[in-house]
Fold this sequence. Notes:
Layout: H1 12-24, H2 30-55, H3 63-83
Amino acid sequence: MSRIKVSVTLDPQLLGAVDGFVQSHPGQDRSKVIDQALQQWYAQQQDTAMEAQYARAEDDVIGPERKAWHAIRRAAAKRRLSAT
C-alpha cells in the first residue's frame, strides 16, 4: 500500500504522549501510531453513520421497501390459504 506524506500541527502534549508510547513500544513509530488513531477515528465515523441509518429505519429510507414486503407476504399467504 502506498503512503502519502503529510504535515500536521499537533498539540505538544499530544505529541509527547505519542513519543512516549513510541519509546516504550519497539517497532512503533509516530506514523504507525497516528495511522492507527486515524483508522479508529474512521471506523467510529462509519459506526456513527450506520447508527444514523438504522435510526431512520422507519422513515422514508426503509419504510416503502418494508411496506412492499408486507404486501408480498400477504399475497403469498392469501394464495396459500385459498389453495387449501
